[in-house]
Specification:
alpha+beta, 6 strands, about 35% strand, about 150 residues
Length: about 150
C-alpha cells in the first residue's frame, strides 16, 4: 500500500522544496515568537535564549528581512533551545501572522517544546568469579548529579 503512494509523496516533497527554494528571497519579518509546552521553565529564561537570535545581524550572504533570514533565525533559536538539554524535543513552525497590527510580510514563529524529566535513575550490577559490584546513578536535572558505587 505504501509503495503505491510513495511516488506521489516524493513528487509532493520535491514540489514543496522547490516552492520554498523559489521564495527564499521574498520579504519576511518575524512579528511574534511563542513557545508552547514548557511547564517548569521561566519565560524570562526562554527570552534570554531567544532574544539574541532576533536582534543578530544577518550574514553578508543572506538578505536582511528575507524568508531565508527568518528560517536561519528560527534554526538558531531551535538549536539554542536544544543545546540547553532542558527539552526532549523542539519543533518549529512558521506561519502567517494573525495580529491585526502585523505587516503584510510578517510571520509568527511557534516553538513547540516538551520538557525533559527532572529526575533520572540508573542502576547496574556485575558479578562473576566470586566478585560483584553495583553502580547506582541519580541525576536531578538543573540541580546536581550523584553517583553511588558499591563494591563488594
Amino acid at each position: 500500500m505504501l509503495l503505491v503512494f510513495l511516488p506521489r509523496i516524493i513528487i509532493a516533497w520535491r514540489f514543496y522544496i522547490w516552492q520554498v527554494s523559489a521564495s527564499l528571497d521574498s520579504p519576511a519579518r518575524i512579528a511574534d515568537v511563542r513557545v508552547q509546552g514548557p511547564t517548569a521553565t521561566r519565560s524570562s529564561f526562554l527570552g534570554f535564549l531567544i532574544r539574541p537570535h532576533l536582534n543578530a545581524p544577518a550574514p553578508p550572504s543572506i538578505t536582511e528581512g528575507s524568508l531565508q533570514d527568518v528560517l536561519r533565525r528560527v534554526d538558531r533559536m531551535t538549536d539554542a533551545l536544544e543545546r540547553t538539554d532542558i527539552f526532549s524535543s523542539v519543533q518549529a513552525t512558521v506561519e502567517r501572522s494573525r495580529s491585526a497590527l502585523a505587516g503584510e510580510n510578517s510571520v509568527d514563529v511557534i516553538l513547540k517544546v516538551k520538557d525533559r524529566s527532572r529526575l533520572f535513575l540508573k542502576g547496574s550490577t556485575e558479578t562473576g568469579n566470586g566478585e560483584g559490584s553495583a553502580v547506582r546513578s541519580c541525576e536531578i536535572r538543573r540541580f546536581a548529579q550523584l553517583t553511588f558505587i558499591v563494591i563488594s
